[in-house]
Amino acid sequence: MSKQKSSNPAVNLIAGGGAGLMEGLCCHPLDTIKVRMQIYKRSADSGVKPPGFIKTGAQIYRNEGFLAFYKGLGAVALGITPKMAIRFSSYEFYRGLLTNKETGKISTGNTFVAGVGAGITEAVIVVNPMEVVKIRLQAQALNPAEGVPKYRNAIQACYVIVKEEGFSALYRGVSLTAARQATNQGANFTVYSKLKEFLQGYHNQEMLPSWETSLIGLISGAIGPFSNAPLDTIKTRLQKDKSTKDMSGFKRIVFIGKQLIKEEGFRALYKGITPRVMRVAPGQAVTFTAYEFIRKKLENTGVF
């Protein structure tokens, strides 16, 4: 693989933040549907089929209105700029360490390792706290009997969670989040880099048309969700559930996983896979396209 030009950290921050905000605005409704599907509970022998993607979306719109699809967006928006800055900056950092200094090339395996490192880094620093807040906001509408919503917005929800449950509550499920982000970004950056390299060679130019960047982003983004869907479902339940807060991290994961399979069957581990793929794949298409476009524009200004 040819050596990829590293971006200035300031360029990563601005381009990544802009790309992330664009992704959130376009794809957050799909994430809300995915979360609702994952936290829906039923008895395994009840014979009641859990609502699917379309029905879940229709129920949200009918019962709560269109803006309900954007619940938790504030938490995402507050975290998206550092998340994308950390993702791309850490990926470039790890990639630089793993690049052969003599040839200026990096192997496919090392590209995957750099992506895994970027995924773990972003999960620990930004993603997990952001998702705990987001999931609480998205899930509270399932308990209308509680009256006035406990969480009003991302900042207030974060404050209440820390006050009532301690700062560690923001890191509930962090091991699962890190595992999910590691596999996501490892596969994501590897597939994207290889496809980009192929198309650059085919066109004999560095800058690809936007539609091709979107296409390879779509393909690379679709791979991760299929490989780690059970991790994501258990993580979502764990971050919403307060009853297991006194258990150790591993015991919580095992307990929730066993409970989910016992009550709803093995297929429950793949709840929300349709909206998740529909969320992540186009999200990556938007992110990579916007990132490449903004980065190129910023570099051409000569300011960075």
TrEMBL record:
<keyword id="KW-0812">Transmembrane</keyword>
<dbReference type="InterPro" id="IPR049563">
    <property type="entry name" value="TXTP-like"/>
</dbReference>
<comment type="similarity">
    <text>Belongs to the mitochondrial carrier (TC 2.A.29) family.</text>
</comment>
<keyword id="KW-0999">Mitochondrion inner membrane</keyword>
<dbReference type="Pfam" id="PF00153">
    <property type="entry name" value="Mito_carr"/>
</dbReference>
<feature type="repeat" description="Solcar">
    <location>
        <begin position="109"/>
        <end position="198"/>
    </location>
</feature>
<keyword id="KW-0813">Transport</keyword>
<dbReference type="InterPro" id="IPR018108">
    <property type="entry name" value="MCP_transmembrane"/>
</dbReference>
<feature type="repeat" description="Solcar">
    <location>
        <begin position="208"/>
        <end position="297"/>
    </location>
</feature>
<dbReference type="InterPro" id="IPR023395">
    <property type="entry name" value="MCP_dom_sf"/>
</dbReference>
<dbReference type="InterPro" id="IPR002067">
    <property type="entry name" value="MCP"/>
</dbReference>
<keyword id="KW-0677">Repeat</keyword>
<feature type="repeat" description="Solcar">
    <location>
        <begin position="7"/>
        <end position="97"/>
    </location>
</feature>
<keyword id="KW-1133">Transmembrane helix</keyword>
<keyword id="KW-0496">Mitochondrion</keyword>
<keyword id="KW-0472">Membrane</keyword>
<protein>
    <submittedName>
        <fullName>Succinate/fumarate mitochondrial transporter</fullName>
    </submittedName>
</protein>
